[in-house]
Amino acid sequence: MKRPSGFTPQRPAETGGGAGRLPDDTPAERPDPIPLFGRAAPKQTSDDGGGVPPLVSAQVSPREARKQRKRVEKAEVRRFTASARRLRRNWLVGTGSVVVLALVAVVAAYTPLLSVREIQVEGAFRVNSDAVVQDLSSQLGTPFPLVDDTAIKAALVTYPLIESYSVQARPPSTLVVRLVERTPVGALATPDGFTVVDAAGVVIEESTSRPPNYPLIAVDGGSEAPGFLSAAAVLRSLPEDLFATVDEVTATTQDDVTFSLRDGDASIVWGSADESKLKAFTLTKLMAAQPGFDVYDVSSPSVAVVR
């Protein structure tokens, strides 16, 4: 039988001799898929050691890609803003601590927890401290920040012996009032006897006889005399050991203060109250070196004169 013309049968390739056919037991290698979004997943070797990579889809959806991009952006933002966030956190912690401490201080100060429940008077020798406490009793129960300084001053100015004072809060409940009393410098003769006065002429005490421990200020006109302030200033500037030996002081101006001593008839020309320590030192040395003179002039301590 004749075959139809125009048909040429194909001869199969010989086994093992050609390159166009794979062995029957070798699977065909599939090409790697082309990723549409993102990067392709790396090839992985199968666990059975056959070297055949598993079939992995490398396609990433747009939604997942956006999520990955946002995660990366957030991580970068956190990395670059770490120092700023740390600084802001420290600032908030510091500010919060200050505010809390301020609130605690205000609450503690303006509540009965820190209020005046006791008044203590210090430095009172001639002043009656019990009377001072009684006059300041209006401050009892008052929180320390609300203590009325004007009321305290109004109560203490009624005591002429108080030269100055200071007030200190001693938590939790004590108000301390420190007094500085006036320092007596001498006695003035009056029609009724004698008055002990300080350097400003304020009367500290009165007596019918001359006080034994204070020098007599012999000036015409009493504390209103022109020479009183000069004599009182000199007496106040004298060292204690020399002050105890002064018997009587006279003065008409600030530069001609003269006084006599209890244990002798010598007269001391002192001058003004300037350089009192140097004058006292010069007088001590001069009287020890040249005793028996009637006048010791130390108004100029560098050129002291005896007569």
Automatic annotation (TrEMBL):
PANTHER family (alphabetical): CELL DIVISION PROTEIN DIVIB, CELL DIVISION PROTEIN FTSQ
Cellular localization per UniProt: Membrane
BP terms from Gene Ontology: cell division
Gene Ontology cellular component terms for the protein in this record: plasma membrane
Positions of transmembrane segments: 91-110
Name of protein: FtsQ-type POTRA domain-containing protein
Residues annotated as domain POTRA: 114-182
Biased composition (Basic and acidic residues): 22-32
PROSITE patterns noted in UniProt: POTRA
Swiss-Prot/TrEMBL keywords: Cell cycle, Cell division, Cell membrane, Membrane, Transmembrane, Transmembrane helix
Signal sequence, renumbered to the chain: none
Residue numbers spanned by region Disordered: 1-70
Major place of residence: membrane
